[in-house]
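can u do me a favor
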């Protein structure tokens, strides 16, 4: 049974629409206040202030996330080529040397398959599989039959696809 498979996705337009709608609302408030016949008043200034806050903040957030995603394009292209051309490595066997490590409220897991060590943590931003047993992950200990497609980055094996055999009773 496939537990995890890494895929490549671009910025989902559905996630951007609420930001743009909120910005539109803010700038709509500004437009209405500017076109009104109300001269200088505290009420007018409050509406303008909140209009700029409601309209400007989502634009700043949008630019921030756009900048982050643009900087990750080379990394995303490399990973897409790796998955598309199947340039990753595969190991199949039983899990050994399983350890669930607790460091305060952070958990990480370590295990090996045929001498290859895999370490992952559910509190780190990683490209590959990172769900520990404490957060609903599927590793229960030693002796599980697994098939792992992985890539080695900075001397760390990142799990790109994880399959665990289901034992029928």
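np, heres the sequence
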């Amino acid at each position: 049974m496939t537990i995890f498979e890494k895929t490549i996705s671009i910025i989902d337009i559905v996630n951007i629409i609420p930001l743009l709608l909120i910005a539109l609302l803010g700038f709509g408030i500004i437009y209405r206040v500017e076109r009104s016949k109300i001269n200088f008043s505290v009420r007018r200034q409050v509406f303008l202030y909140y209009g700029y806050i409601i309209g400007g903040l989502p634009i700043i957030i949008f630019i921030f996330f756009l900048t982050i995603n643009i900087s990750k394009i080379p990394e995303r292209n490399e990973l897409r080529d790796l998955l598309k051309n199947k340039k990753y490595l595969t190991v199949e066997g039983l899990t050994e040397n399983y350890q669930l490590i607790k460091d305060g409220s952070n958990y990480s897991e370590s295990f090996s398959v045929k001498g290859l060590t895999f370490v992952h943590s559910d509190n780190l931003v990683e490209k590959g599989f990172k769900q520990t047993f404490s957060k609903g992950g599927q590793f229960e200990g030693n002796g599980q039959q697994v098939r792992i497609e992985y890539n080695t980055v900075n001397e760390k094996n990142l799990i790109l696809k994880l399959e665990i055999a289901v034992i029928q009773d």
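The beta strands are 2-5, 89-103, 106-113, 116-121, 145-153, 156-164. hope that helps!!
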